[in-house]
Amino acid sequence: MKKNLFTATFLILILAVSCSTQKETPMATNPIIFADVPDIAIVRVGDTYYMSSTTMHMSPGLPIMRSNDLVNWELVSYAYDVLIDNEMMRLENGQESYGFGSWASSMRFHDGVYYVSTFAATSGKTHIYTTTDIENGEWNEISFEPDLHDHTLFFDDDGRIYMIYACGELRLVELEPDLSGVIPGSEIVVIEDASRIAGEHIGLCAEGSQLLKHEGMYYLFNIVWPVNDIRTVLVHRADNIAGPYEGRVVLKDRGIAQGSLIDTPEGDWYAYMFRDYGAVGRIPYLMPVDWVDGWPVLGIAGKVPDTLDIPAGDGGISGIVASDEFNREPGDEKLPLVWQWNHNPDHRFWSLSDRPGYLRLTTGRVDANVLQARNTLTQRTFGPQSSAQTRIDIGNMNNGDCAGLIALQRDYGFVGVRKENDEYYLVLELAENNNPQELERVLLNQNHIYLRIDCDFNDMVDLAYFYYSLDGNEWIRIGKPLQMVYTLIHHFMGYRFGLFNYATETAGGYVDFDFFRVNDEIINPY
């Protein structure tokens, strides 16, 4: 009897511990990445997921991320180093590609080959990148005219290859078997007015096409934005890729929209979308999906849940942003994948070897302002709050040079150093309402300075605070905070931290950045 009582008590304790352990397992939450990772497309190969996204005018571009659980992602590749080499992407003669570059990509895995396609007004072309080794291999490019807006690349079961594209009036074209272009005469309109099912008054017509095939039916996902309303997800379905299609609204929640579906090896389905979240950018969300009467039902009771039924894992965005001490060992990559250049870099004027342990940025030409400066090195900001700091050696600047740390968008803000008349000045420059103004300056009497920017994205307050330090310990706030603003037309990208150096008088000066350190703690500004 005592033995049975002991056994029963032991089993109860085991169950209690087990239940307690299960309750303590943290679950993933939305957004799955609190940073600018928009226009996502996902494929699953075995038990591994790969995701592409938009980074527009950045170089390298078209980032590829990997995950084993749909919530923890890390950068593994870029589809291209340079989208196109022209004046816009070189920031020459007053030209720039802010808000352009490559837009929403489509991603496929077919017969052992990975395909990522995009389009760009900057080049006027549709670009398709292919590789057999998505994490370590070389990417090959195929491009053709015209640039097919927000297209979805699709390999059908009969071996034919299609793209559906455009806005509102959605069109289908068949591609040549070698993907070299559109088969002449193949273009048809598959949905005359895809926006109609969302209402009569449409601000942004149905676009962002992503096509999938499930149990013999074609499902076309689009985003639409009715006037005085929020971004809305549409699905049209047909039993033939050419139609006719019938459609319905499948999600209308906080503007979370644009994406498609992905299944797990276990047979579960999820939808992936993004949400406009102010100055931090467009941030990705994940939601469960059920199939009911041949239609996908997104979310729970029509809403995107804040908590997912997936363990959180490591969480955070450590695979997307990272600190860098600029120390390199033989065999190390020069720049980890978290870094991207603002437009195409000029590789002659940056170095990690001229002074080991430092990033050297040398001016190669004269520029009018920081937005025209070449070789600005960037990483994403992230929410709900993020901070970046650096130490910069300034002793080799020329008169007229300006270097420092920037919160980069059209309405930018930077804390940095200007050299004028052989004197060094710490400066704060803000470009609120696209109107750059130097708001404060402090005379410096040393050849190095510590710089810091804190970004507060909580509840879309979107404020950036600027600091400097003479010794790296005591931080002094300079000037007023920047009211960060996400601009759709001009930059179309969440704010980025950036390291920059540009000349206004004579090229050839340089600065050395000792480190770039990023974290999620900010100084209480109040």
UniProtKB/TrEMBL annotation:
Domain of life: Bacteria
Site location (Important for catalytic activity, responsible for pKa modulation of the active site Glu and correct orientation of both the proton donor and substrate): D150
Name this polypeptide is given: Beta-xylosidase
UniProt xrefs under InterPro entries: ConA-like_dom_sf (IPR013320), GH43_C2 (IPR041542), Glyco_hydro_43 (IPR006710), Glyco_hydro_beta-prop_sf (IPR023296), Glycosyl_Hydrlase_43 (IPR051795)
Residue ranges annotated for the Beta-xylosidase C-terminal Concanavalin A-like domain, each copy included: 324-518
UniProt xrefs under SUPFAM superfamilies: Arabinanase/levansucrase/invertase, Concanavalin A-like lectins/glucanases
Keywords for this protein: Glycosidase, Hydrolase, Signal
Entry keyword annotation includes Translocase: no
Family: Belongs to the glycosyl hydrolase 43 family.
GO biological process: carbohydrate metabolic process
Lineage start: Bacteria, Pseudomonadati, Bacteroidota, Bacteroidia, Marinilabiliales
Signal peptide stretch: 1-23
Active site: D39 (proton acceptor), E207 (proton donor)
A GO molecular-function annotation: hydrolase activity, hydrolyzing O-glycosyl compounds
Pfam families: GH43_C2, Glyco_hydro_43
UniProt cross-references to Gene3D superfamilies, sorted A to Z: 2.60.120.200, Glycosyl hydrolase domain, family 43 (2.115.10.20)
